[in-house]
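Re: [ENG-882] Designed sequences occasionally contain unexpected residues at chain ends

Forwarding the minimal case from QA. Structure tokens:
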């Protein structure tokens, strides 16, 4: 390596900032230039992978996450501009900052480079210090984009989460249950919902205060969460002391068994609150869609309404029980009668 190069790059520098290991892909078809550029960039603190042409670069960037792409303009197969366009069209998990290396100086060329999706360009022959300054500036933009995306994701999570119990909220239920019904209809799957309502919950609030009531709600949610199939089933707080559990690809019998599991867990042991141990119970109503359901009845609102009717009958029948809505006869069955 020439002394010019090493003079310009100190091995002490660290551009990474928020990234422990900023990952950079270098696409350059000329082997010697590729080697030199890789050396500059590695000395600059980047983890550098290389590609000998645009096709190889695109393949690597779609398989592994890279923060920055430094690419030559003229390469065999896929040139730098086409590579930029392909990357911008691809659905990559994070923004890739693209720096184009060009031997051309015309303004048409610059317009082309930026128009194809490059963020910036630098002219050959490459000055190592200038290259690193450009790459570091790119890294700052990538860092900003990542922190914005993380903040957006946090906001999105907050908008669909119930702040008291940490389950999904009503907004999420309203939006997602429609999609679950649509999926079940399209793929010919069953879909069940369970509606749960804490028994005599008003008494808990009246006797022990709202904050104890809140403890009970949180504990109910936690026990219910522990009883459902992770990854597919999900819970939303419908409102007050009412919850809906959605069970995709689950027939009525399976959903009824899950509801019974939750009911038993909720009733089995007292809840620890600031007012001491409290015995609680909940009532449940279960309804399902099946591939043979009447298409007119295949909607989220109808499904919820039927689960709610079954829940209402659980309450009437004495609480602390599970009732299921029989689709054909539109009647409810007490779990004790069917098990
Ligand atoms: P039932 O067995 O018939 O369901 O009787 P219940 O007392 O549970 O039903 P009711 O609908 O009469 O009372 C529900 C209570 O839930 C009334 C309301 O004050 C309470 N509640 C609703 N939201 C919250 C909340 O976020 N925190 C607390 N602590 N209580 C709530
Ligand atoms: Mg070239
Ligand atoms: Mg209620
Ligand atoms: Mg209640």
């Amino acid at each position: 390596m020439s002394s010019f190069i090493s003079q310009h790059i100190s091995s002490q520098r660290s551009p990474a900032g928020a990234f422990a290991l900023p990952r950079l892909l270098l696409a350059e078809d000329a082997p010697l230039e590729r080697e030199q550029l890789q050396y500059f960039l590695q000395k600059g603190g980047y983890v550098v992978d290389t590609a000998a042409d645009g096709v190889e670069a695109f393949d690597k960037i779609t398989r592994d996450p890279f923060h920055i792409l430094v690419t030559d303009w003229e390469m065999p197969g896929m040139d730098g501009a086409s590579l930029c366009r392909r990357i911008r069209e691809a659905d990559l998990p994070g923004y890739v900052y693209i720096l184009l290396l060009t031997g051309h100086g015309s303004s048409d060329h610059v317009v082309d480079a930026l128009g194809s999706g490059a963020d910036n360009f630098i002219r050959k022959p490459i000055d190592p210090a200038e290259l690193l300054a450009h790459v570091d500036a790119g890294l700052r933009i990538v860092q900003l984009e990542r922190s914005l995306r993380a903040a957006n994701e946090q906001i999105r999570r907050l908008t669909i989460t119930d702040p008291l119990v940490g389950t999904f909220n009503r907004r999420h239920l309203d939006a997602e249950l429609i999609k679950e019904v649509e999926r079940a209809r399209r793929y010919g799957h069953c879909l069940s919902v369970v509606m749960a309502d804490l028994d005599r919950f008003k008494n808990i609030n009246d006797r022990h205060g709202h904050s104890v009531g809140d403890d009970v709600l949180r504990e109910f949610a936690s026990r219910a969460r522990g009883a459902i199939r992770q990854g597919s089933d999900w819970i939303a707080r419908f409102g007050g002391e009412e919850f809906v559990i959605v069970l995709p690809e689950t027939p009525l019998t399976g959903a009824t068994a899950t509801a019974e599991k939750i009911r038993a867990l909720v009733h089995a042991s007292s809840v620890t609150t600031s007012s001491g141990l409290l015995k609680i119970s909940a009532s449940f109503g279960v309804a399902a869609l099946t591939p043979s359901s009447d298409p007119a009845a295949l909607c989220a609102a109808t499904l919820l309404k039927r689960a709610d009717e079954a829940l209402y009958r659980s309450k009437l029948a004495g609480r602390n029980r599970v009732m299921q809505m029989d689709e054909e006869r539109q009647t409810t069955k007490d779990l004790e009668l069917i098990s």
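QA comment: On inspection the terminal residues look reasonable. Residues 128-160 form the longest helix (33 residues). Proposing we downgrade this to a documentation issue.
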